[in-house]
């Protein structure tokens, strides 16, 4: 089919295509512009930002905003906490997902339908916020790092995605062959399934990691000690509540004088800094998220 | 059941004991964090006392529900919740479909890739940062919005953030900015699955681009649209807590208080657990009725449904 049928485009079609190009161009600019504006402002001087002189590129480039971030201890505590919660939480989450999805993907697993129904039922119904909170409280997890890791660890949606993947891409023949060679169920999981499932494991890990990194709600309701706050909760104080705590920053009198300027710039730079991990991962994330969306969209 | 069958069943279970061991840990999580909270729903019908606990607190029947239905917050909260979610649904779904259809028409792969990568990116921005960006960009004094107003000779730009009336639009359009690129992916995938011969054949028959979009592309993605619509209708009453809560302030509270933020405040801030659970339960029941009736309608009037 190298000689695709070529029919001269009518003026109508060319007009439509032009409109599509222009519209997509405008949409892309509209999406990208606020981000560019924030990044450029974060590298500009506070007088340029306050004076409305920043349009596209940084004006009077300076790293003042970033130096303010470096002095803000609470941001770094939050950063480290978030790395910890994201790392441990996502690893646990992927492990639990596979441990649930693998058995129920096996035909020889008696009672798999019971588990599938338990999962679907839990997807449709939930106890709601307060009973959830009470469970975490009764387990004495309130105020501990565990409250950030355990309650949300099992994602039912991920389990269903993983189960679909195992069923559709790991042939039953392979299992039977392994069984004849003396491979046990657990052995098959560790020696065969995990190696054949790298793409879906990557998807699950990224989902979980992005979710953990961006979440603030569990921290809001379960934590009360600022030293355990994840980054997003610190950001909420700065960006939304507009509360910048200078006591931890050890500022000189000179710097205190410019406090208002610094507070403005701090907001721009902290947005950039907090988004860096996701930004670095973006090419991978994008690729795998698209795959994940597809796998998740497969209807049984 | 006949005896030999049970024996065989037992043998089968025993032979795969490892699978049961593996599934044990996630099952404990499922029960603890999904099923135990469901038992807690009973406190909607009780007068919860922290000393007596969930099981020991006395039953009071539908008292909490009556209190909610007669409370002055009932209608505003329901109205705000419905308004926000219907508005978001009516704008968000067509936006994603339009973006996918438009990208599908573009012959240049490179252009398409740039558009997709850019529109997809905001999905990964956290809600807190998104609200931070909204506050910064829409500031009438220092934001882009204020700068543009100045450019057009308006000295005192209209303060969008301080307007209760503007809250719903702020919520919906920031959502469009953040989620349209992500939402378009799934439609793009179904568009890519269309047999190219369909397009070739209709070209020969003299169909224009627009006609092909209407008669080939749209019908092809209809099942996807319907399934996603059913899912969203089920969530009509559960507008996400995260963004609404962050965008809320004292000024816009009259239009921004939704069921989930109300439950949070009643329950966790004022520690009136029973009342908050009753409100939450009412919310889930209505959501459940909505999702089932939409599914029923979809099954009756089209060939696709969720279950």
From TrEMBL, chain A:
Annotated TM spans: 15-39, 83-102, 114-134, 146-166, 187-210, 265-285
GO CC, any one term: plasma membrane
Main localization category: membrane
Compartment annotation: Cell membrane
Any GO BP: transmembrane transport
One Pfam family of this chain: BPD_transp_1
Name recorded for this polypeptide: Carbohydrate ABC transporter permease
TrEMBL record, chain B:
Species in which this protein is naturally found: Paenibacillus albus
Similarity remark: Belongs to the binding-protein-dependent transport system permease family.
Locations listed in the record: Cell membrane
Regions that span the bilayer: 20-45, 82-102, 114-138, 219-241, 273-298
Membrane topology: Multi-pass membrane protein
A Gene Ontology BP annotation from the UniProt entry: transmembrane transport
Cited SUPFAM superfamilies: MetI-like
Protein name: Sugar ABC transporter permease
Keyword line: Cell membrane, Membrane, Transmembrane, Transmembrane helix, Transport
ABC transmembrane type-1 domain location: 78-294
Classification via PROSITE patterns: ABC_TM1
GO CC terms in record: plasma membrane
Pfam family, one: BPD_transp_1
